[in-house]
Each structure stands twice: as structure tokens, then as C-alpha cells.
Design brief:
Elements (H helix, E strand, L loop, with lengths): L1 E5 L3 E8 L10 E9 L1 H11 L4 E7 L1 H13 L3 E6 L5 E8 L6 E4 L8 H12 L6 E5 L10 H11 L3 E5 L2 H8 L5 E2 L3 H8 L5 H13 L5 E5 L5 E5 L2 E6 L11 H14 L4 H16 L9 H7 L4 E4 H5 L1
Parallel strand pairs: 1-4, 1-8, 2-6, 4-5, 8-9, 9-10, 10-11
Antiparallel strand pairs: 2-3, 6-7, 11-12, 12-13, 13-14
The structure holds adenosine-5'-triphosphate and magnesium ion.
Length: about 325
């Protein structure tokens, strides 16, 4: 089975207003509530792509109930650990007038008790025949940054592939366990190697440095410029077409899910990369925090350009 892990999931509450008024009442024109958080997002897109998977993580309180119900409604399987605190709600306000400003308020989420963390670790230790796990996002209060290193170590011991999408200390700690894949964006990659990265060549060079620390394949997503994959003797660049984007939330998560769709179907690295890039771009065209579905992704796949960077060099 394929698993995703979301230690600090959320309900993303998006509201559309004409213009925010800080001196009077602002009327909300439209609202949506969707399950959110990195692992959850990956699970939603994977499910939409027809890839069976189970979302693991922590949920608590009424919002935790809502999160599980909404996921169930979308057909996403879950196996959550109940915690005493309440799952967080993030607030996104989109203005429809003017330049379409956004306000994004991300909440902290509940503090996790040691015994709740212990329950999750036991669950992970006891997963039967996991094939792959997507791990990522911020860590809730109470969880040490070392958690990702420990989880990746357990999954590797159990023979599962691991894909890490995190930043800062969480990414650094996860890398110590030698994940099969990491997917930082350009900015996170530059923070990881401690220098600015200008142009493709510098990104590829930085990816090779990170690979030498034990990471299998490094995927660097670059927004509208697409995504690079640097693996063992393989370097590819996938580029999306120019599209009208209406959303910039969770594109990286969709890219991870599209890539995993490729892995689950035993595609070659370059085809996994194309599907990942297609999924990211297809979600960029979906309003609110809705996600690209199978049809959207498959329609985008033939529009993605692919370059073999190894061949370019020769
Ligand atoms: N403006 C855009 N036009 C077309 N495709 C895009 C655009 N922005 C992002 N994408 C697609 O989404 C993928 C991931 O985007 P990005 O690099 O912004 O991820 P990220 O920064 O990790 O996002 P997140 O905020 O979800 O963590 C890109 O590789 C690309 O395929
Ligand atoms: Mg990201």
C-alpha cells in the first residue's frame, strides 16, 4: 500500500470577497472548505488519479472529525491517530476586485503529546507491506525535527520507497536517513545548500551535492519553469506550457502526487517527472483549494516539454 503522512493537517477555509474592508463589515460572497496539509493534499490528488493510498497523521476535535469526513467523502482512505488538541483551520481570503489580493492565515495546530506521537510511531512500525510513503510539511508543536529522519529510517527498513517534501531543519534531518526522493522548490533547495542558485546548471550542481549525502533522486520544482530531476546518471527537465493560473496553493503537493502516480505505474524517471509536472500545472489552473483530477492531469501530460540534460551535455 502507498501511504502519505500529514502530522499537522488542516481544514483550508477559502472565502471570496469583493474587497477587504478593515473599517466596516466585509461580506463573504462564496466559501469553500477543503482538507489541507501536504500529505493530505498528496492523498487527495493520488486518489483522484486512481492510485489507492492511505493518509496517516493526527486529527483532533470537531475539525478533526470534519477532516476525516471530508476525506472519506472524496474517497480518500485514512488511518489517523486521535489527539487531544483540535485540528487547525487555515483561512484564505481572495479579493475578486482589483489585483485579486490574497490573505493566507496558517494556524499553528495542536500540540502533540509524547504518548500520541508514540502511538503514531507504533502504527508506522506495524504497517503491513508499505510500498511507498510521501512525507512532508511542517511539524506540529511537540514533535522534534528528528521525526522525519526516524520515520524515513523505519520505512526504509520495511522496504518502502520514501519521498520527502519538507524545508529547513525538517528537510535536513530527513536527508540524514537517505530518502529515495526529495522535492524541494528552488528556494528550499537554495536554503538547503546555503547559497543562491541561479540557472539550471547551478540547480543541477546543488542537486548532485545533495545526492552525495545519500539522497537517491533530487526533484527541484521551479514554479512556471517546471521541474528538474537529478538521479543516478540521469538528469531531466520538464517544462509546462504557458497557462492561465488561478491558484498557487498546493502545487508542489500535486507535483509529488503526479510523480508518485508514475512510480506506482513503474514508469521511468522521465515519465514520472512529466506526470509530476503535469499534475502541478493542472492544479495551478483549479480555483480555490480544489485539485487537479485524472482527466486534468492526463490532458496536461502531452503539453509538457521534456529535455534530457545528459544528452545536451554530450
Ligand atoms: N505559474 C505556473 N504555471 C504553470 N505551472 C506551474 C506554475 N507554478 C507551478 N506550476 C507547476 O507546479 C509545480 C510545482 O510548483 P512549485 O515549484 O511552485 O512548488 P512549491 O513551491 O513546492 O509549491 P507549494 O507551495 O505547494 O509547496 C511546478 O513544477 C509546475 O509544474
Ligand atoms: Mg512545496
Amino acid at each position: 500500500m502507498i501511504y502519505t503522512l500529514a502530522l499537522n493537517p488542516a481544514i483550508d477555509r477559502t472565502m471570496w470577497v469583493e474587497r477587504m474592508d478593515f473599517h466596516a463589515t466585509t461580506r463573504v460572497r462564496r466559501e469553500s472548505r477543503y482538507p489541507g496539509g501536504k500529505g493530505i493534499d498528496v492523498s487527495r490528488v493520488l486518489t483522484g488519479l486512481g492510485v489507492p493510498n492511505v493518509a496517516l497523521g493526527f486529527v483532533g476535535g470537531f475539525v478533526g472529525d470534519e477532516l476525516e469526513c471530508r476525506l472519506g467523502y472524496e474517497g480518500v482512505q485514512t488511518d489517523m491517530v486521535r489527539v487531544s488538541g483540535e485540528t487547525r483551520t487555515n483561512i484564505i481570503v481572495n479579493e475578486t476586485a482589483g489585483d485579486g489580493r490574497h490573505l493566507l492565515l496558517t494556524a499553528k495546530g495542536p500540540k502533540i503529546d509524547p504518548h500520541e506521537l508514540g502511538t503514531l510511531f507504533r502504527k508506522i512500525e506495524n504497517l503491513s507491506e508499505p510500498s511507498m510513503m510521501a512525507i512532508g510539511g511542517s511539524l506540529p508543536r511537540g514533535v522534534h525535527p528528528d521525526a522525519y529522519r526516524r520515520i524515513i529510517t523505519i520505512m526504509k527498513r520495511k522496504g518502502a520507497m520514501t519521498i520527502l517534501d519538507a524545508d529547513g531543519d525538517n528537510l535536513r534531518s530527513g536527508i540524514q536517513a537517505g530518502p529515495d526522493y526529495i522535492k524541494p522548490n528552488r528556494h528550499e533547495m537554495s536554503e538547503l545548500v546555503g547559497r543562491e542558485l541561479n540557472g539550471l546548471e547551478e540547480i543541477v550542481q546543488a542537486a548532485e551535492e545533495v545526492r552525495s549525502q545519500g539522497v537517491g533522486t533530487v526533484l527541484v520544482s521551479m514554479g512556471a519553469d517546471g521541474m528538474v530531476a537529478v538521479g543516478d546518471g540521469k538528469r531531466y527537465l520538464a517544462t509546462p506550457p504557458k497557462v492561465e493560473t488561478v491558484n498557487n496553493v498546493g502545487l508542489g503537493d500535486s507535483a509529488v502526487a503526479g510523480f508518485m502516480y508514475g512510480l506506482a505505474n513503474r514508469f521511468e524517471l522521465k515519465d514520472c517527472l512529466v506526470h509530476g509536472t503535469a499534475a502541478g500545472t493542472a492544479t495551478a489552473m483549479k480555483p480555490g483549494t480544489a485539485r487537479a483530477n485524472r482527466e486534468d492531469v492526463m490532458a496536461m501530460v502531452p503539453r509538457i516539454g521534456l529535455r534530457d540534460l545528459m544528452r545536451d551535455e554530450k
